[in-house]
Specification:
binds fe (ii) ion; eight-stranded antiparallel sheet; globular; Jelly Rolls; binds 2-oxoglutaric acid; alpha+beta
Length: 225
């Protein structure tokens, strides 16, 4: 590829400002804890959703779940073996939860992609990946003009898992076991606004039980262009 425009792969004052604003807001919130990882900005908050809200979202996922695809649309035979679906953005519960995530982070709702639901059965996993877009990918030109790079990820665990199913950050040497109702928030960018390779993460295989999550990815600009 000769004409890659690498404005999504390098430092960016605009993306740095997004990181700074969210970080400042989360640091002020007494319900939110920073996870101690020197090279990654990552925060957690328990009881972000109550049991009824988790059950409601699990039912929406059960109703819509299809075998997961990868963003690239490539075959995902063993890379992302979960079932997933985009949740209806006009569903009242989805609207409430999306608004709550925006209020927690301070990020504009128009920058947020549709909430995506995911369900992992025993043995299913999502192998190590970064949520930001590689600028060398064939889909980057389209992403550039429809909101640009992904900045923060917000992910909520909707079920406890009896064994396995942790979200693992291998470069940071920690993993988070699912806790029903807990939200995890991390910045896919470094403080200077360049993609952070240390945000690499995986969903470890579920060993016992069933894992449900919803994920919301925030673009640096309005999603959809
Ligand atoms: O299920 C998890 O723990 C991680 C999910 C994830 O990485 C994603 O949806 O991008
Ligand atoms: Fe991810």
């Amino acid at each position: 590829m000769t004409d890659v425009i690498d404005d999504g792969g390098i430092a960016s004052p605009a993306r740095a400002r997004i990181g700074e604003a969210v970080r400042a807001r989360l640091e002020r919130n007494p319900m939110v804890s920073r996870i101690d990882a020197p090279r990654l900005e990552i925060y957690g908050r328990r009881d972000f959703l109550n049991a009824e809200e988790c059950a409601g979202l699990r039912a929406l996922i059960d109703a819509g779940a299809q075998p997961s695809t990868l963003f690239s649309g490539s075959a995902n035979a063993d890379y992302r073996t979960s079932h997933s679906c985009n949740l209806d953005p006009w569903d009242p519960l989805v609207m409430i939860i999306s608004d709550r995530i925006c209020a927690l982070t301070g990020l504009p709702s128009e920058n947020g992609e549709t909430l995506q639901g995911q369900r992992y059965a025993v043995g299913q996993e999502y192998k190590p990946h970064c949520d930001y877009f590689p600028v060398t990918a064939n889909y980057w030109p389209a992403m550039r003009t429809t909101g640009g790079q992904r900045s923060w990820t917000a992910m909520i665990y909707l079920s406890a898992v009896e064994a396995g199913g942790e979200t693992h950050f291998p470069h940071c040497e920690f993993m988070v076991p699912p806790v029903e109702g807990m939200i995890l928030l991390w910045n896919n960018m470094k403080p200077d606004g360049a993609p952070n390779p240390d945000s690499l993460h995986a969903a470890r295989p579920v060993e016992r039980g069933e894992k449900y999550v919803v994920t919301k990815w925030f673009r640096e600009k309005r999603w959809g262009g």
